[in-house]
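Sequence, structure tokens passed on for absentees:
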Amino acid sequence: MLDWLKNRKSNDADAELEEFRSIMEVPGTFEDGFSLSSLLGTVFVALIMVPGALYMELVAGIGLGGAAQWVTVLLFVEVAKRANAKLSRPQLFILFYMSGMVLGQSVHGTPLFRQFMVRSDAAVSFGITSWIPSWVAPANLDSLPRTFFQRAWLPVIGLILFNGVFGRLENMVVGYGLFRIACDIERLPFPMAPLGAQGIVAVADQVEGSARTKQGDVRWRMFCIGAGVGILSGLVYMVLPTLTGAFFDDPVMVFPIPFADLTPYTQRFLPAVATGLSFEMGNFIFGMVLPFYAMLGSFIGLIVTFIANPILYRNDLLPTWRPGDMTVDTLFSNNIDFYFAFGIGVSMAIAIYGIVNVFRSIHRRKNNIHGNGATQKIVDPKLRGDIPPFWIVVCYIVTASIYIMVCGWLIDWHRGVMIVLFFFAVIYTPLISYVSTKLEGMVGQIIEIPFVTQLAFILSGYQGVAVWFIPIPKANYATQTTFYKQAELLGCRFTSIWKSTIILFPVIFISMLVFSSFIWGLAPIPSSVYPYTTEMWEFFAKNACLVYSSTLGEFSPFQEAIRFGDRSGTFLAIDWRIWIGMGLGGIMLALFDFISAPTMLLFGVVRGLGQTMPHSVLPQFLGALIGRFYFQKRYGREWRKMIPVVGAGFFVGGGLITILAIGLVFLSKAVTTLSY
């Protein structure tokens, strides 16, 4: 047994990471990927896809995301074929990147969620409505029309615009600086970068004529099969309730949206456990596409909570839960009583593990100079586009200073908060970004230290809720480094990324504002027209207000959710629930490390332990089982190449049929609201 463990530990590479790690050589030449076709594709996405993505998120809690990106890419590939034009890999990458920027706008990043939260039952019950400043949301919302194009919303829109401009600037420039350190200086392999680049390579092969090969025919057939299944699923799950909700008082649903809540039916033998099932087939497909051990870990973590919650409840550790509570109330009660603090402890254990893993990997790389990083091709930064290190530092200092000054003006230059802002800008953001970049470059994972913002603001002594809405200089730029690595693997000059970002941002901002205002004008949010908001937004508001109430200067339920010290509020000791989370998390990490368990299994278990909604975990695990033990046995290694294509086709098909239905809804509403 010990010999087997030694053999496993002697192999530094994770088997499943190796399965996803496709070696790609950096090309010898780099091209500018920004072109007129890329810009036209982005405008197409902004006008057609953005309203559909926002609407789907409100109705079912899902967006178009990658599906709309691939729709855009494939559409322009077909246009280019018929026009006898050529789209290079860099051009396809920029087209994919620009459409992703447009569709990356979540409803929570628009004023839509703010207009609800400031009037929500949670805000009223926690007593924060009178504390909310006008630059968060107008005070007299009930007397205003449902549109963002009015003077009362100008401060809110201005702050969103400020955050978007400076956030993207920092992300581009600082992310590039971290990439230079990790890739050019430290020669880290970035194992997950080739995975994202392979899709662009496959599409580029079609443009170049490789689709006529047997492999290309199989790939296209798999894509069409997935698209057909996606269309059928979308017709039943999204199109039917969307169209009926537009023309009748209540939408007709074959399957409940966003999930079937089984908690009241299972509470007799599973008290304080949220149960249910999502019928959105995308979860099933996700289970097949994502790593098997990640799905297995999520399921294991979920089973642990199924066992632990009844035990905790019977020992009076979940006292807030009451029989009859639905999923949302159950999750919120359990968070206050136990899982909020417990999750902090587990996350802190993971953060410590990640930092230790970084230094261990550095030590291994020093002892093995022939590792993956040492064999990478050295690229002249000037060939792919370069920003001198001096200007990277200057950009960060200037933008961080502007962030601090704007935040200081918004909170009346509160001394404690100003100290926190300097801590984030000078210490936390550079440190966590660098450490996460190291981990991302070595094993494809990032780390976050949990609840740093919340604890820092509580300790600052600030009273009020405005501090929770200011654009603080705190970020983690590690994920941007993988994006730059993908661009390098595809031979795309970085200058084309920067140009497209500068040109694209106004399009993103205007389309987001116009369509979110239009959607809000169709019907109140939440309402029966948007089932997901009715079911879940109050839960999000409760969790947010739970944190906001901690700086009101009075007793807050947040003090019960996370206690540092005794009930009088003195910070004498760390909450025992955090210690439990750190202890169990540390034991779990040590055990997994000792037996060399797959990395994806580790992070999957953590996901399942964190009060994850069981409604999506179960269908995802079912999809993973069928993919692993049926399709993979039948098709072998080819299955791992086939299922991403099927998954892309599924989301493209479902996204297209849903967008068609949403277009009909918009058209009917626009006509019926005309005064003549």
About this structure: The two ends are 81 Å apart (CA to CA).
